[in-house]
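Chain A, query sequence.
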Amino acid sequence: LNDIITQEDLELFSSISNHTARAIHGFKLDEEKIELIVASQNTLISAIEAKDRYTRGHTDRVAQYCTLMGKSLEKQLRLYPNGLSDLKWAAQLHDVGKIGISDTILLKKGRLNKDEWQVIKEHPINGIRIITPVREWLGEDICAGILYHHENFDGSGYPSQQKGEEIHFFARIIRVADAFDAMTVHRPYRPALTKEDAINELKKYKGTQFAPQIVDVMVNLYNTGEI
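Chain A, predicted structure.
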């Protein structure tokens, strides 16, 4: 892939969503249709993971962590019948907006400057733009998970500075899973943390960056050897 994905590339990615939307138009949305949608978006995810070898497999791992946490929280959150499935789709699609970010930013070894950081912060909104043609079929819960997965529990996150339970519970779960995986993967600017160290970081920022309830579940999954 080239260093920078062009406007033509982004139009192609949106075209995939448009074709998927036409393919399911007029049909009742069921598991098969959802899988068709996600398959099209996974094409986009493959593109971003091919650019950045450091995050290869990130999407699948985040989806796995979210599914485990969702199962633990199912009764507490009173998830609707397809809630776990929708949570998984949201996790799989959470970083689709990174497709338009250049390698010079994604793979930068040093600290990002103000402008570069602003580009990174726009990826949740860009993700929603990319999936707009299939937003109706994905549903608002999945879209909220994508859009708000970088909101912090204390309101210091982005893009909307939501806080506490204002943040959709899908996004609160993805926030913890995403951070845990990011910390345990080697990056150009720092070595990977051990899982134990990553868990300690989650506990350190419990109630500020991360929802306490979600951190507690992740810690329990670690303590029981499930992650």
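Residues 1-6, 19-29 have pLDDT under 50 and may be disordered. The first helix runs from residue 7 to 24.
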